[in-house]
Backbone:
């Protein structure tokens, strides 16, 4: 038996509880992992609260991230005792996820935990930080460099935004952080932001083409914010879009793309191929100081994940929530 957060169908919505689960009920997979830490992401919070139909099958253990140690393996890449990480692949949606003390998984979904990070630190990064790294990689491979100008990061106090600022700053970029939480200015500057932009400047409908401001953008917000960010991107610049906190609409025109040669990258973390995942984690291991993670992450026990989900949905959480599944 092991402890897990379990979501099941209820008459008026999902029933969610911390419960003990028999290992015999674990789903199919060729690798079994003793989970050390997981995280609480926005998608996990949607699943737990039922605010969005994230869960595809019931019952379901949520948790799109996990870090742990292999205890059984029939996969050629993994042996007992290997330290591994999982991000995405529909885990926590259609396959039991990481908010549990044990998981059985497809070994193709796993990547090795970099030696630079403990399991807890890897989960302080989690899907949010890994996505941030994918976004930085997209801008870098496009050819955006520090001497080209300032990079805008929207949703800056969230998990993706926080790690993106730290990575960009380490790589030598000047960073502008857009946020509605003006009380978090000191936090953003500590991460490496040079300027702080009030999100209201970007959140309303704007002109199709605006003053050129940004050499690149990492956007976690979508909707009007993404449209305005594109309209303000300099000639030949790039925008990496990975979130929809404001909305999944994109009320824009083609003007920035055909008149300024702006490139819009869609960044997916769920099904990204292994090579891209390894590159993203290599950048994190190289450029993200473990001390930065202490300021980004807060830790909670497994039993508090259910109540913390409401706070995350309400936007009352800064940075990352790490879940110790063994307390």
Residues:
């Amino acid at each position: 038996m092991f402890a897990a957060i379990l979501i099941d169908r209820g008459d008026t919505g999902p029933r969610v509880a911390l419960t003990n689960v028999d290992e015999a009920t674990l789903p199919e997979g060729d690798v079994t992992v003793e989970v050390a830490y997981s995280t609480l992401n926005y998608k996990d919070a949607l699943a737990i609260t039922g605010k969005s139909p994230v869960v595809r099958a019931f019952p379901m253990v949520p948790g799109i991230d996990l870090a742990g140690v292999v205890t059984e393996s029939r996969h050629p890449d993994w042996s007992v005792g290997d330290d591994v990480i999982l991000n995405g692949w529909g885990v926590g949606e259609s396959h039991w996820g990481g908010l549990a003390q044990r998981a059985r998984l497809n070994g193709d979904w796993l990547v090795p935990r970099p030696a630079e990070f403990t399991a807890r630190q890897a989960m302080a990064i989690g899907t949010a930080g890994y996505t941030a790294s994918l976004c930085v990689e997209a801008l870098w491979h496009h050819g955006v460099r520090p001497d080209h100008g300032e990079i805008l990061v929207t949703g800056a106090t969230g998990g993706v935004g926080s790690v993106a600022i730290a990575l960009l700053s380490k790589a030598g970029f000047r960073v502008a952080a857009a946020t509605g939480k003006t009380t978090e200015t000191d936090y953003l500057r500590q991460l490496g932001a040079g300027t702080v932009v009030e999100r209201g400047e970007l959140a309303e409908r704007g002109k199709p083409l605006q003053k050129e401001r940004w050499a690149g953008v990492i956007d976690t917000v979508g909707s009007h914010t993404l449209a305005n960010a594109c309209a303000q991107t300099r000639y030949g610049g790039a925008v990496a879009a990975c979130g929809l906190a404001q909305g999944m609409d994109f009320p824009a025109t083609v003007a920035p793309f055909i008149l300024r040669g702006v490139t819009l990258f869609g960044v997916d973390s769920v099904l990204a191929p292994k090579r891209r995942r390894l590159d993203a984690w290599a950048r994190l291991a190289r450029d993200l100081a473990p001390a930065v993670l202490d300021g980004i992450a807060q830790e909670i026990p497994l039993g508090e994940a259910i109540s913390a989900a409401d706070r995350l949905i309400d936007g009352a959480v800064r940075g990352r929530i790490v879940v110790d599944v063994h307390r």
Notes: The chain has a mean pLDDT of 95. DSSP finds ten helices and 15 strands in the chain. The CA atoms of residues 39 and 244 lie 20 Å apart. The longest strand covers residues 31-40.
